[in-house]
Amino acid sequence: MRASSGRPEPRLVLAGGHPLRDEALAAVNRDLAVTVPGLPALRLIVCPDADDLDEQVYVALSDGEAHGTCLIPAEWAGEAMTAVADAAQETVTERLWRAWPVCTVHDLGMHARDVDGTPSWWCAGGSRKGDPAHIRAAIGDLDTLHPPRRPNRRRRKTRRPR
Prior knowledge:
This protein is an alpha+beta fold. It is built from 2 helices and 6 strands.
């Protein structure tokens, strides 16, 4: 999010300003560090709304760029984690131009979901019968790097020796 002329610039949310969101962002940043090494940690920024009556909080990249919707002002503990994960996913996916995070089993983008009180990364499963949806990991507990698949890349044909 970049401020238009005449509007105050977005500013960084100081640590402790939103404790539930700070904790959620730390968990999402752990997943980001494991799955996309080299991408700087995400941060929370505050932007004034159109009427300058309220402030809106976004999950942004280190350069201040954010995509998607703002975080709602009052979130419950469980909702804060999934809301921050959703917002982070929108920002990271837009920057990378590919799904994030990706299930290592199905090569599909995952989504944040609260499952039995645990905010988790959920995969829709494969397209074959018997390949069901599943929980990959709790948010903050991803542990596997998944290199991006390149479906449009041509594979080299290897010649067999005669």
